[in-house]
């Protein structure tokens, strides 16, 4: 078995192997995956030359707390043929891929996990979460807003094919301020790759424009059941725009319920309804998994809200590494250096990935038995330090 890099010439065999691993058939010549970066692909090949495994990565930008935008390698298209599973093929590809990321100078990697048991052993931890809100339309009267701003713009319904540029521009503005959000490469929009609203399935897009006519939000939606309107994603550059889009969607005649997918944990929409029970939460699950490849670099890259000091003892069994770091935050800037001091917390690098964006509290992982706190104040200290103004959210599918 050997692991080799792919080139553009390998696209067809790569896509075919990957789809076979998922027991699916490619669409027309793998169009759905045409935004893959083939110079970042890996093929696992048997001694007699048969491809049996695939892995690839996108060159994303990830927004960190403090509106810091950094590069992140987005692992994708991971698959091993059913005939060759549990023989270490994925492990070999992961080892190679992590080494490749470091060789490129990347210090963060992210992925969406098909199954939650696969990636912790490779140092990834769940870091953002998502859920849907189903609202009974006839009970969806809005409470009178006391303080929330009211958008003064307009909404127009467009076809997906007619507003690609608008969506791309609005999304790009939105993702730069939200921790956990990923860039969507231009080629990805162009290729029509990924899931809704980018898939070829028909969708309407409600575009919100501000008072000057500049697009500042959109929602993509379609009727999925005779009387269910499903909203794939709502992108809004502020809360007032998000509210305006929700009001618009809930105003659809002939619809009994509206399903808002991919809502963040701090979504105010349910609280905006007069009848709190008109909205029901569901589909609560992990979304983006994060892996730190260089602990000091990653910790000094993100923004911090609170001053403090913490000694972290970090194990990285997947890479056979271990480090103890003194993290010092002053005026929003962090320094992170190796230390011999006694640790406040001992944790696996996958747990550090979970708390890194502020979406998972260190104290919860202490209570769950993942992180070890070495004294009674350690967990609260870490909560205060890692906490962020808003929970991270990612709604990109890749
Ligand atoms: C980011 C993404 O692309 S997510 C998509 C992941 N791909 C899929 O889900 C497609 C279907 N599944 C597959 O192709 C394969 O089962 C893979 C890729 C998940 C695993 O590939 P394999 O080559 O079998 O993994 P490998 O043999 O290296 O296993 C390494 C370890 O992980 C464990 N493991 C691997 N997959 C799973 C799983 N799905 N559930 C639980 N444990 C798993 C193995 O038991 C093994 O444990 P051990 O080291 O204690 O023995």
From TrEMBL:
Transmembrane segments: none annotated. PROSITE patterns: GNAT. GO terms for biological process: aminoglycoside antibiotic catabolic process. Residues 1-149 form the N-acetyltransferase domain. Signal peptide: none annotated. Pfam families: Acetyltransf_17, Acetyltransf_9, SCP2_2. Keywords: Acyltransferase, Transferase. GO terms for molecular function: aminoglycoside N-acetyltransferase activity. The active site is at residues 119, 398. Coiled coil: none annotated. The keyword Magnesium does not apply. Acetyl-CoA binds at residues 78-80, 86-91, 114-115. Homohexamer; trimer of dimers. Belongs to the acetyltransferase Eis family. This is GCN5-related N-acetyltransferase.
